[in-house]
Amino acid sequence: MDILNEQSQINSKSRDAWEHFDSHRTRVTDLIVHVASKLPSSTKIENGRPSLAIFGAGNGNDLNVERLLESFGRIHIFDLDQDALKRFQALHCQSKLSKEVIQIENPIDLSGVNTELEQYPQSATDAHVETVANKARTASGVSIDRQFDVVASTCMLSQLLHSVLKSVGDQHPHKNFLMIALRDGHLKLMSRAIRPGGIGLLVTDFVSSDTLPALQEAKDDETVLAIARQAIDARNFFTGTLPWAIKDSLATMLLESADQPWAIHSPWKWLLGPKRSYLVTAIEFAKTF
After folding, report:
1. Residue 74, beta-bridge partner list
2. Domains of the chain, CATH where assigned
3. Are 202 and 190 in contact (CB under 8 A)?
4. Is the distance from CB of 119 to CB of 169 less than 8 angstroms?
5. DSSP string, 187-250
6. What is the edge-to-edge ordering of all strands in the sheet holding 194-208?
7. Do residues 154 and 238 make contact, with C-beta atoms less than 8 angstroms apart?
8. What angle is formed at CA 77 by the lines to CA 72 and CA 81, rounded to 5 degrees?
9. How far apart are CA 280 and CA 23, in angstroms?
10. Whether pTM exceeds 0.85
C-alpha cells in the first residue's frame, strides 16, 4: 500500500467540501481558541501572541484560519500530503497577515513508520513486530525541531490508524497491537512538541454512520450525546480512538500523575455529505513540566 497516495486521494476528494465542514470547523476552531485563552501568562509568545502547531491540517477545511489569526502570533502547518499543503496555502494564505503568521512546513510523515507499514511482511517475526511497534510508540522516526504553546491534531489519529488496517489487513494478528502503539506514539509526539505550560488538543473522530446509522439523522447535541454513549457501550468505535483510553494513556505518559489537567469534550456530529457522518470528540491536556 502507498500510504501517501491513499491520503492524497482522500484529501483530493474532500478539497471542495468546505460547506460540509461548516459546523465541524466551528467546533474545532472554537476549541483551539478556547485552549489558547487558558495558557498561563508565563507562556512564551511570538508577535505578542502564542504559537500554534496543527498536525494533519490537510486542505484546511477543519479550520477557520481568520479566527485563529486573531489568537496566535505564529501558526505552523504539518501534513504528509504536499498537494494538500499547496491547497491550504492557496485557500488560507493570501492576506498580508496570514503570510506573516502562517508557516507551511515541509511534508512530513507524522507517524514515523509509513515505510515500515508499507513493507510490513504478513509473516513478521515477533522481533520485527516489536521493532516496528516500538518505533511507532516512541515516535522516534519523527523530528520536529521546535516546541509550541498549543499543538492541535485535527482528525488525524483515525487516518493514522486506518493506515495500519490498509497496510497489514483487518484480520492480521498484529493489527491492534500496532494501532495502539501508533496511537500512543502520536500522543507522545504531541506532548514532545508542546512547550512546558502549553496545551495539547487531540480532535478525533471515533465512529461513523457506516456502523452507527442513527447518527446520520441526529439533529441536536443531546441526541448526539445519547447516540455516542450507546456506541461506546456497544464497543462500536474505531480501534484506538476510545476517549477514556486516550486519557488513560496520556495520564501514564505525563509522569503518571493523577492531577494533570485534562478534559474530554462533549462529542459532536460531523456531517460529511448526505451519506456519511462521524462522531467527533476532543481530548485536551496540559504539559506542566
Report:
1. 51
2. 3-286 (3.40.50.150)
3. yes
4. no
5. HHHHHHHEEEEEEEEEEEEEEETTT-GGGGG--SHHHHHHHHHHHHHTT-S-TT--HHHHHHHH
6. 102-104, 74-78, 51-55, 148-154, 194-208, 277-286, 262-271
7. no
8. 165
9. 12
10. yes
Each of the 289 residues of the chain gets a pLDDT tens digit; together they read 688 777 777 777 777 777 888 999 999 999 999 999 999 775 656 667 899 999 999 999 999 999 999 999 999 999 999 999 999 999 899 999 999 999 999 999 999 999 998 888 877 888 888 999 999 999 999 999 999 999 999 999 999 999 988 888 888 888 899 999 999 999 999 999 999 889 999 999 999 999 999 999 999 999 999 999 999 999 999 999 988 888 888 877 765 444 456 789 999 999 887 789 999 999 999 887 7
Q: What is the DSSP letter of 46?
A: B
Residue that is written with C-alpha cell 478556547 in the block: 34
Cell numbers of 53, please?
502547531
Q: Is 79 helix (H, G, I), strand (E, B) or coil?
A: coil
Rounded to an integer, what distance in angstroms lies between the CA atom of residue 206 and that of residue 210?
A: 12
Backbone phi and psi for residue 105, each to the nearest 5 degrees, phi listed first: -80, 160
Cell of 45: 509568545
